[in-house]
Amino acid sequence: MVKIILIALVLLIAAGLIILGINTFKNREPEQINIVYWDFWDENLIRPVLTEFERTHPNTKISYTSQSQLNYRTRLSTQIKEGAGPDVFPIHNSWLPLFLNDISPAPSNIFSLGDYKSTFYPVAFDSFVASNQIYGAPLGIDGLALFVNTDILSAANVAIPTNWSEFVSGATKVTVKDSNGLIKTAGAGIGTTTNIDYWSDILGLMLLQQQTVNLKDPSPETGAEVISFYTGFITDPTKKVWDVNLPRSGDMFISGNLAFYFAPFSKVSEIKVVNPNLKFKVVPVPQLPNGKITWGTFWGETVSVQTKFKKESWELIKFLTSKEISKVFSVPSARVDVAAEQSQDPIMGPFVNQGPMYKFWYLSQVGTDGGINDEIIKIWQMGILGVLQGQSPQGVLSTINRDSKGILTKYGVK
Which string of b and e fits 230-260 if b means at least 16 CB within 10 Å? Predict the structure, then answer.
């Protein structure tokens, strides 16, 4: 009898401990999730969005820091390699080769390939998907558009160009020179590297518009032709619309002394702040006959391989890129289902309407990336300056092709 009582007591105590353990587990506070988020948005804009995410994810807190784009890539890479840095952060759409080992792909139950393809423009897939893994998702879409000074064009009775032939004709017609032949009103900011904003992006656009061109190894005919066309806006007397001694093209446009200026959407706010009285329109870039190719340069949100909160970090990105939230940022949306709402906007519309046509390569001027873009751009810059100094486009292209192959191999671009 005593033995039976002892066994019963042991079982009772064990049951009590189990119940106590269950209650303790139930009362235990859920794990606190702290996500460090870097981006370029003003905190006054992004904080209400992050607060809404925190409201729907009660155990999650977002620590946000607004970053400068200057030397951003090298600062970011250094921190990640040191095991520090943010959990969620943007990378440029040309940076995937630089970050493949530093970022974590999206779980398929958060972003599936099918949903991704149907949600974003094709250039997002080309930029952030590798080996059927999604490594980034864009909030907005951006690229080159043509900014047009409408007063200059009206005074010269020149129509806004839609193709390169009209562009050359219009830019030549509106160019004004003084008695010494010096340009006072420039037709277009194009032709060199030293005082042209986004010159490498413009050159990349021209190369991609050749359609059959292989940017890893442009043919002598196609590549040399593009180089000749680009530099011809300075070297060809019949279409000289720019000069190496002029101020920067952005400054010329803002001051009202430049008719055609290539720039991304991100330049709009600066123009309006510096010269709110400037009358200008934004239109799609010129095309070759039957062409539909534009130049994309934008950012995508990614997740660090070092994060302890991979799932929650990707849930944040999913939230930020959702249809309603994406409209909060007042930029051209990367989502195709927002295009109808934004396409009629006089400034955002041209960028949105170019969305299906964006392509990219490693000639994007994004601050100083200290990597593949900077190194490829330097090679092309030496080539363009060489042609302006009298070298042959064919000889220059041969050097560009040789040196580019080494850089592409270095960064694992096949």
Answer: bbbbbeeeebbbbbeebeebbebbbebbbbb
